[in-house]
Amino acid sequence: MTDPENPGPSSSRLPAADRRPARLAEAGRAAVGALILALFIMTFVGRAFTVEGPSMLPTLHSGERLVVERVTYLFRPPRRGEVIVFRYPLNPRDFFVKRVVGLPGDRVAIREGLLWINGQPVHEEYVTTRAVHAFPEVKVPEGHYFVMGDNRNNSEDSRDPRVGFIPRELIVGRAIWRYWPAERIAVLTPPESFRSLP
């Protein structure tokens, strides 16, 4: 028997029906927090992209998935040899993946199947087929980059007037990691061939 004047310790537990709205509100807050975090990561840190087409063979195959990070280029410009994702100049809703070969101020050409930068041939170990067509020397304008696919004879890149020089503001980020398929997981690093260039 309980004394109505002294009911004893009170319980803070609510009936199950009363706890349900509190649980829903908590789940809703968690979902909103997760969404905000995901949007922050996708906007400022990085996101996933799927390679479409053969233009980056043999380095990247169609259907492979990449992590593209956006933070590095907030602190420094792109470097030669880095694989980047950028918005297609004629339709910024489309994304291309290519390799940066020319920086602002560089002179870029293709002669006898080889890439030349600032009067020096670049021996690209990652390119398995030399370019069939020559490309006359051009100077990369300030604030722009010259990009090429590793599959030199099957790539719509800066040699094509529809692509041309890529403005810095169209670059989404740097591809740093191939995470799919599992048997081809790899970190993407710039090749040695660009390090000796001035």
Short description:
The chain has 2 helices and 12 strands. The strands form 2 sheets. Strands 1, 2, 3, 4, 9, 10, 11 and 12 form an 8-stranded antiparallel β-sheet that branches. The chain has a 4-stranded antiparallel β-sheet with strand order 7-6-5-8, with no helix packed on it. The termini are far apart.
Q: What is the percent of helical residues? A: 10-25%
Structural class: alpha+beta
- The figure for the number of domains is 1
The percent range for strand residues is 25-35%
The Rg value, from CA coordinates, equals 26 Å
Mean pLDDT: 87
Distance separating the two termini? 92 Å
Oligomeric description of these chains:
single chain
Overall number of strands: 12
The CATH architecture comes to Ribbon
Shape, please?
Answer: elongated
Order of helices and strands: HEEHEEEEEEEEEE
CATH superfamily, by name, is Umud Fragment, subunit A
Catalogue the unreliable spans: none
**CATH fold title:** Umud Fragment, subunit A
Our count of helices gives 2
Taking the sheet with the most strands, its summary is: 8 strands, antiparallel
User: Briefly, what CATH class?
Assistant: Mainly Beta
Characterise the protein shown here.
By secondary structure, this protein is α+β, with helices and mostly antiparallel strands. The longest helix has 30 residues, at 16-45. The strands form two sheets. Strands 1, 2, 3, 4, 9, 10, 11 and 12 form an eight-stranded antiparallel β-sheet that branches. The chain has a four-stranded antiparallel β-sheet with strand order 7-6-5-8, with no helix packed on it. The protein has a single domain (48-194), classed as Umud Fragment, subunit A. The protein is 17% helix and 32% strand. It has two helices and twelve strands, in the order αββαββββββββββ. The protein starts with 15 loop residues before the first helix and ends in an 11-residue tail after the last strand.
